[in-house]
Amino acid sequence: MSLSMKECEQKCLRNCSCIAYTSANESEGGIGCLTWQGDLVDTRKFPDGGQDLYIHVDVVVLAQYAKENGLTQKKRMLAILGVSVAVMFLLIVSVVYCFVMKKNKETRHSIYSDSVDSTLPYFEDSPSRRDLDGTRRNSNSNSNLPLFNLRTIIAATENFSIANKLGQGGFGPVYKGLLQNGMEIAVKKLSKYSGQGIEQFKTEVALIAKLQHRNLVRILGCCIHKKEKMLIYEYLPNKSLDSFIFDETKRSCLDWGKRFEIICGISRGILYLHQDSRLRIIHRDLKASNVLLDNALNPKISDFGMARIVGGDQIEANTNCIVGTFGYMSPEYAMQGLFSIKSDVYSFGVLLLEIITGKRNSTYHHDGPSSNLIGHVWDLWREDNSMKIVDPLLDETYPAHEVSRCIQIGLLCVQEHATDRPTMSTVVFMLGNDTPLPSPKRPAFILKGTYSSTDRSTSAASNSINEITLSKIDGR
């Protein structure tokens, strides 16, 4: 690990078995030496970036042969140059050949074919009718979800142009599109290199197709072509809630009345998932970036790729694969893999407090015994000073009693023990009525050093940043 790149080169040149070398730590200026003997194993092709890999080729052998046989310097150079030109020529020919073969294959199997993976639920082969906007509706009575062909999506998004990119979700980019009939759509394009596979895609399609609620995002259809998987949603021009509440300019447009409407809308959406839909669904990744806003700033919960269906009378389950986002995950789920409807209640409580304060729970710091937002609100509430945490952009034009009540409801939702937290039906009742509230107990995750200030997500094997949720799904 202490060798420089020059020393690494010399070390490899002195070893006849060494066929390649590179820096062991490229990020720290090329310190450390990594060499190969035999096959080039454990290498990886990066779509972008990566680092240089120095490989011995036949030119070195030829140079050594020339030296041993007494060739002149000029002959040695000519031999090396000839071999280099030959290698380069063969390389170019190989690349051109592969490119031509690929183009021929794409011509034979048009990218615009309407083939659909028949293993998807509700998409069995059956007679179908084609709509004018390029979609196909399965006649199976179990589903009215249209299947968009790839030609339609490419035309709508202008071949997934950067100008139409709305953002980057946990499993890939999201693009704005415009259908021929004038309808605006949002296309969630599943990344080929993301953690979400066909099972997660099936989950999201099957779930959202069955869910109908004004506070849940509406799915218009899907597109499946070979390894390409896309979901087509209604287009919501105001994007996600986090782009408003964590931006001072946009947040100033949200008075208390609108924030309270958003809070109530989110609570009703979660209640529908937990209790009122045909399936009992635990979202498991409720956060500000997964709440979208329509033209009137009405909230719509989105991103059901991590959701779990449980039995109609089941309220909890456990898993070895922890998914979600730090700052929103309940303690029993983060530490034991035990998730329940109370896990979503915890996430809602965090989100409620973020809407009131305009601050992120995971990046908020205060010079007190508690490092995150929840801890600070708890400290102020115990001192009867919880109103100090209210977003100053509200400019005291809010009903103090109502805001204080919402803060207390948020603290009830983030209590450390799941049994102490209210259900979403109780939360909706408390938000809509002025009945007395119980006193909250100590919340979880309020001590310093619980987790880093960067908003992070977690999975069974990896971490990610920048609002991205990485995960591994286990079977239901």
What labels would you give this structure?
476 residues, alpha+beta, 3 domains, 34% helix, carbohydrate binding
Please provide a written account of the structure.
It is a single chain. The chain has 476 residues and is an alpha+beta fold. The protein has 3 domains: 5-108, no CATH class; 128-234, Phosphorylase Kinase, domain 1 (2-Layer Sandwich), CATH 3.30.200; 242-464, Transferase(Phosphotransferase) domain 1 (Transferase(Phosphotransferase), domain 1, Orthogonal Bundle), CATH 1.10.510.10. Helix content is 34%, strand content 17%. The chain is built from 13 helices and 20 strands. The chain has helices at residues 5-13, 58-68, 73-108, 150-156, 198-210, 242-245, 248-251, 256-276, 331-336, 341-357, 373-382, 400-413, 424-432, and strands spanning 18-25, 31-37, 54-55, 128-130, 135-138, 146-148, 165-168, 173-178, 184-189, 219-225, 228-234, 280-282, 291-293, 299-301, 308-310, 316-318, 324-325, 338-340, 457-458, 463-464. The strands form 7 sheets. It has a 5-stranded antiparallel sheet, sandwiched between helices. It has a 3-stranded antiparallel sheet with strand order 2-1-3, with helices on one face. It has a 3-stranded antiparallel sheet with strand order 4-5-6. A hairpin with a 2-residue loop joins strand 10 and strand 11 (228-234). The longest helix is centred in the first third of the chain and has 36 residues, at 73-108. It is elongated and about 100 Å long. It is found in: Cell membrane. It is an enzyme of class 2 (transferase). This is non-specific serine/threonine protein kinase.
